[in-house]
Amino acid sequence: MKAVRSIRRTVVAPIALVTIGAAAWLALAVSVGAQTAAPSKAAPAKSAKPAKKAAAPEFKLILEPRAMDLLKTMSAKLATAKSMSFTAVVGYEYPSKLGPPIVYTIRYDVTMQRPDKLRILMPGDGPASEFYYNGKATIVYAPAENLAAVADAPPTIDAALDAAYKNAAIFFPFEDLLVADPYAAMTEGAILAYYIGPSSVVGGVKTDMVAWANKEVHLQIWIGADDKLPRRVRAMYSADPLALRHQVDFSDWQIDPAVSPDTFVSAKAQTAGRMEFAAPAPPPKGVKPLTTEKSKPATPAKTN
After folding, report:
1. 125-to-120, 233, 272 alpha-carbon distances in Å
2. Which of 69-83, 93-107, 282-296 is predicted most confidently?
3. Cα(202)–Cα(143) distance, rounded to whole angstroms?
4. DSSP letters along 210-254, please?
């Protein structure tokens, strides 16, 4: 999922190692077996020379067409939707003093209408907040404090999300699903994609599992076999020395629902006290915005 600011970064180990499939591991095991072959019986034991170590087979990173086609079909379903709503429950692992990580959870209730309407309500384990964009302004509202940050906004969802990140470090772990061209956003920089297999235990529907990676993140994505909608994304990031895992579960999908104009305004936010529309702290190093109007779709690599 550009996938950070959405849900993406890589593990400390090279992505090639993280994403080696079963066939590659089998080939690696065969090569290890070859390295431990017994010396020839034809030569005297004292003059036997150690057998040369067989070179480990080179693992080639490819963009498997089947995996890329699944991502393209999913993206097309989202891109052609004039409106949509869904719930995303995000679990972030954080290190604890005892060693094993703990999980912090946020729920996002999302409603959008192309090209210039977006509402994201965020109840969670921490303070609740609300995000509104109506084509002219972006409003972030904190109900507990009854404070709102208001800023002029560009005329498209893509540009508004990009401005929110640049101006206030606001980002959501599913932005790739909201932009005008999800396929371009999700596949930019891809170095690996392959089909894992089917699943019937995620989201209450049959899904197809796909692995995807660029130099910053490795993703596993569950895509509805029938409705072609994302049901789960798991991510590990290269910039994270602890290799913590992040997961988004999607539910309550509605494609092209009728949406009232009142959905994208908040009377309470309009009358609330004002706070600065700015980041509370500098963004962490290595985190880049996902949305960009310059994104280009990846071209599947040849598999010969």
Report:
1. 16, 20, 23
2. 69-83
3. 33
4. EEEE-SSEEEEEEEETTT--EEEEEEEETT-TT--EEEEEEEEEE
Q: What tokens appear for 26 in the block? A: 């089998």
Task: For residues 296 and 189, give the distance between their C-alpha atoms in angstroms, rounded to a whole number.
Answer: 9
Domain boundaries, given as residue ranges, for the chain: 65-274
Bridge partners of residue 267, in order along the sequence: none
| 3-16 pLDDT tens trace | 434 443 322 232 23
HSE, side-chain direction, 13 A CA sphere, residue 189: 19
Alpha helices of 80-141 — where are they, by DSSP H? none
> What global pTM score does this model have?
0.74
pLDDT tens-digit readout, 163-197: 999 999 999 999 999 999 999 998 989 999 999 99
Fold of the domain built from segment(s) 65-274: outer membrane lipoprotein receptor (LolB), chain A (2.50.20)
Q: What is the DSSP string of 17-50?
A: HHT--HHHHHHHHHHHHHHTPPPPSSS-GGGPPP
Confidence band, pLDDT 50/70/90 cuts, at residue 48: low
Exposed, middle or buried: residue 233 (CB in 10 Å: 0-12, 13-18, 19+)? buried
Determine the average pLDDT of the residues in 144-169: 95
Burial class, 199, CB count within 10 angstroms (exposed 0-12 / middle 13-18 / buried 19+): middle
Give the span between the Cα atoms of 19 and 6, in whole angstroms.
20
* pLDDT higher than 60, residue 210: yes
Residue 124: band (very low, low, confident or very high) from pLDDT cuts 50, 70, 90 = confident
Query: From the CA atom positions of the chain, what is the Rg in Å?
Result: 23
Nearest to 120 by CA among 140, 149, 97: 140
State the maximum Cα–Cα separation within the chain, in Å, rounded to a whole number. 93
For residues 77 and 255, the answer to whether their CB atoms sit within 8 Å is: yes
